[in-house]
Fold this protein.
Amino acid sequence: MNPDLDALQPYPFERLAALKAGIAPPESLPPIPLTIGEPRHAPFDGALRALVDHRHEMASYPATGGLAELREAIADWACRRFELDALDPDHQVLPVNGTREAIFAFVQAALDRTRPARVAVPNPFYQIYEGATLLAGGTTLTLDCRAEHDFRPDLEAVSAETWREVQIVFVCSPGNPTGAVTPLEELERLIRLADEHDFIVAADECYSELYLEESAPPPGLLQACARLGRHDYRRCLVFHSLSKRSNLPGLRSGFVAGDSDLISAFRRYRTYHGCAMSLPLQRASIAAWRDETHVRANRDAYREKFAAVTEILAPVMDFPSPEASFYLWPAVPGGDDEAFTRALYAEQHVSVLPGSYMGRPGTDGHNPGAGRVRLALVDDLDATTQAAQRMRHLIEQTVGWETSP
């Protein structure tokens, strides 16, 4: 077996299961999980109808590059959403089976292990960035996301010498787990750094359509390129998905877009990888990318939950004002995220994810996720409100979370 497999750390949810092992939560309280970022809202019905209407196309092999109609629907959507003059559907767009698969595969295709192969990732982070890097023979450079920098990486803290060893920089905006949004000026700064030090900027934008202020959608990397007049999107790729936008995590549908040279090489890799999207899934994806009504309704539902939960928790927990995504990132009373997680499960039957499980020791030796928990507000309004009320009750009782059980 590949010896690099031994370098992989346990997945956060594996660690969470071990943390909760042996605990018997109260049976009188129904369980409420706020752990996994899996949307529970109704999936877009137009996509489901398209799946049924085109089920006969399961009889055909799909092409790696996907249907021209799908690439065109994606390009049209991206141009409208991110104010782009153009996005070539034939050379700058590639349909993929969701962002997770595409991010992992892209690192395998892009990383050159014959020279220093560092991949910069926000810290805390989505663990696929790290796993993909290790299995491609690289090492991660963690960029700490702390409160004093609005939970975004401090690009100025990285030396020129270190940047020269970096081949890929991952941006996650809106951020998982923090919900922080990277402003256009910061994206432009990163693009200039990429030019100076010759690395690829890979922007994970799978939460881009879940934002609280309807008139202020989060900016994207290609949008920053356009503002700089870089319509070839050189050195830049974005990763998007229908999982969160359209509540279709099981569809496994998304796209990669940007630099045509990178897209061409990645497409060649995927031809051998054998991961083309089936035709009925492509038809469903076309329907989803062409409809915005269901996406606005989705945002409205999240806004309602954010308003209810923040009203309950703000008096007893400190967290950044949510901008986008469906996460809250509160600091826990007592500062021990594992102890709080265990107590909340043991006493209130509510599951959350310790923030330390999503981070690594930073430049100062401190894990920037420690002392916080990630709350995924993916369930319905009633369940998320109940979870917040139980959490507040635990905190106000101050029993069980100050020391590990």
